[in-house]
Design goal:
Domain Caspase family p20: 30-159
Strand content: 35-45%
Pfam family, one: Peptidase_C14
InterPro entries: Caspase-like_dom_sf, Caspase-related_regulators, Pept_C14_caspase, Pept_C14_p20, Pept_C14A
CATH class of the largest domain: Alpha Beta
GO molecular function, one term: cysteine-type endopeptidase activity
Helix content: 10-25%
Keywords: Signal
Length: 464
C-alpha cells in the first residue's frame, strides 16, 4: 500500500508540474518565406534541369534573406502538404515566394503544375492528377500578407506525347491579384526551353539577376526577359503580371548614414545675409530645393482607373520661415513636404508633415516616419517607409531630366474605425525643377478596394 501511495503522489506531482509549465511560445514567422519545388523524374518525359534549378534558386533565395522550404521530385500529395506548410508559416507581414520548375500545362483556361506521379490519360483527368495553380494563389491570399511572388519555369513541351494533346500550348495568362507578382518563363501560350547547361534558360538568368544589389523586382525581371529573348533569338520571351503596391528588392542596397550637417562657425556667418530672391539652383540631382516666390509647375494627371486626364498648376505665393504657401491652397515645409493639402472642398492637415523627402537624398537610404492626418473630422495614423533609389533619366512632356527615384509606402489606419490600407507612391525628384518630375501613385484599402491609381507627369515649369 505504501508503494502505491508514493506512486500516486508522484503521478499527481508530475501532472501538476506539466500543468504549471509555461507553454512554448509559437515559432516566429519568417520575414521572407519561399517554397521551391523542382520536378524532373517524370515517367513519360523526364527533364534534365529542374533539380538543379531548385537547388540554385534555394541558394539565391537564402542569400536574399529567405527561409526556404524545398521539395524535389514531389508527388501530388507531397506538393499539397508542402503548400499547407508554406501557408501555415507565412505571417501577416511576411513576403511569400513560390517557385516551380517542371512540367506545366493549361486545360480550359486553368494552369496545372504536374507532380512526378501524374497519371493522366485524358484531358479531363488533369484537374485531379495535377496541382491547380489556383490552389497556390488561394493559399497566398489566405495569408493576407503584403507581398507575394510566384515564379513558374513550367511551360515545357507536352509531357504526354500523343496520348494527351491539350487544346492550348504552354500556360494560360493569369492576372496578378493585389499585392502580388507573377512571373512566367515564357509568354502565355508558348513553351520554354529546359536548357542545355546546368539550368533551364530562364532560371539561369534569373538567379544571376537576383544577385544585383539595389535592383527592384521589376528591374530584375526586365533584365531576365531581355537576356532570355536575346539568347533564344526571340523564341522564348518571359512574361510577368504585377499588382504590387510596394517596392521589393531581393538584395536591398545597404543603408548609408547621412553625413552630419556641417557646424557653422562665427567666420562662416560673417558678412551680409544672402538675398533669398537671388538664390542659385543647386547642382546635385538630390540637393534640397531653394524655393522662391513665383516658382511654378504644371502637371498632367492620368487617372489609370477610368483613363481620364486633367492638368493642374501650382505656384509659390509666399515663403515665411519654414513655411511655403502655394496658389492652390497647399502649404509645405521649406523642402516641399506637405503640411496642408487642398483637394477641392476637402482639406488634409498633416502632423508633422506628409513626409516625401529626407535630405540629403542618399541612394540606398531608408527611413520610417510616423505621422497623422486629419480630414473632415476624421483622423488617420500613418507609418511611412521611404527608400531613396538611384539616379535615373526620366522622360516627361517638359523634357528629359536626371532625377532620383523615391519609393514611398504609407500604411494608414483610421482611428476608431476598421478602415485601413496602403498608399504607394513612386516618384522621381530633380533639384533642377525643385520638385518631382514624374510619379505613379495608388491608394488601396486592406480589403482590396482601389481608391486611387494615377500617374503624374511634369508638363512645364518656371523656377528662379
Amino acid at each position: 500500500m505504501k508503494s502505491v501511495s508514493i506512486a500516486a503522489i508522484l503521478l499527481v506531482t508530475c501532472a501538476a508540474a506539466f500543468a504549471q509549465a509555461p507553454a512554448a511560445p509559437p515559432a516566429a514567422k519568417p520575414d521572407r518565406l519561399a517554397l521551391v519545388i523542382g520536378n524532373a523524374a517524370y515517367k513519360d518525359a523526364p527533364l534534365i534541369n529542374p533539380l538543379n534549378d531548385a537547388a540554385d534558386m534555394e541558394k539565391a533565395l537564402k542569400a536574399s534573406g529567405f527561409t526556404v522550404i524545398r521539395r524535389d521530385n514531389a508527388t501530388l500529395r507531397e506538393m499539397h502538404l508542402a503548400i499547407r506548410e508554406f501557408g501555415d508559416r507565412l505571417g501577416r507581414q511576411s513576403t511569400g515566394l513560390f517557385y516551380f520548375s517542371g512540367h506545366g500545362l493549361q486545360v480550359r483556361g486553368r494552369n496545372y503544375l504536374l507532380p512526378v506521379d501524374a497519371d493522366v490519360q485524358r484531358e479531363d483527368e488533369v484537374a485531379f492528377a495535377a496541382l491547380d495553380l489556383g490552389a497556390v494563389m488561394e493559399k497566398l491570399d489566405s495569408a493576407k500578407n503584403p507581398v507575394n511572388i510566384v515564379v513558374l519555369d513550367a511551360c515545357r513541351n507536352n509531357p504526354f506525347g500523343t496520348r494527351l494533346a491539350p487544346t492550348a500550348k504552354g500556360l494560360a495568362q493569369v492576372d496578378a491579384p493585389p499585392g502580388s507578382f507573377i512571373a512566367f518563363a515564357t509568354a502565355p501560350g508558348s513553351t520554354a526551353s529546359d536548357g542545355a547547361g546546368r539550368n533551364g534558360l530562364y532560371t539561369t538568368h534569373l538567379v544571376k539577376q537576383m544577385d544585383r544589389t539595389g535592383a527592384g523586382i521589376e528591374d530584375v525581371f526586365k533584365a531576365v526577359r531581355a537576356s532570355v529573348r536575346t539568347e533564344s533569338k526571340s523564341v522564348q520571351v518571359p512574361w510577368e503580371s504585377t499588382s504590387l503596391e510596394t517596392a521589393f528588392y531581393f538584395r536591398p542596397a545597404p543603408i548609408v548614414a547621412a553625413a552630419p550637417a556641417p557646424v557653422k562657425t562665427a567666420a562662416a556667418v560673417k558678412g551680409p545675409r544672402a538675398d533669398p530672391s537671388k538664390r542659385t539652383l543647386p547642382t546635385a540631382v538630390g540637393a534640397p530645393p531653394n524655393f522662391a516666390v513665383g516658382d511654378a509647375w504644371t502637371y498632367r494627371i492620368v487617372n489609370k482607373i477610368d483613363n481620364t486626364e486633367r492638368t493642374f498648376t501650382t505656384r509659390v505665393t509666399a515663403i515665411a520661415g519654414d513655411r511655403v504657401e502655394y496658389s492652390n491652397g497647399n502649404v509645405s515645409d521649406i523642402v516641399g513636404n506637405p503640411t496642408r493639402v487642398q483637394r477641392g472642398e476637402r482639406v488634409e492637415n498633416h502632423t508633422p508633415s506628409a513626409q516625401a523627402y529626407v535630405f540629403p537624398l542618399v541612394p540606398g537610404s531608408t527611413f520610417q516616419i510616423k505621422s497623422s492626418q486629419e480630414t473632415a473630422g476624421r483622423h488617420y495614423d500613418l507609418v511611412t517607409d521611404l527608400r531613396i533609389g538611384e539616379e535615373e533619366d526620366v522622360e516627361t512632356p517638359a523634357g528629359k531630366f536626371r532625377a532620383i527615384r523615391i519609393d514611398r509606402v504609407a500604411n494608414w489606419k483610421q482611428r476608431n474605425n476598421k478602415n485601413d490600407g496602403v498608399n504607394t507612391w513612386t516618384y522621381w525628384y530633380s533639384s533642377t525643377v525643385k520638385r518631382f518630375v514624374a510619379g505613379e501613385q495608388s491608394n488601396v484599402t486592406a480589403a482590396g478596394k482601389v481608391l486611387m491609381r494615377e500617374r503624374q507627369e511634369l508638363v512645364s515649369y518656371a523656377v528662379k
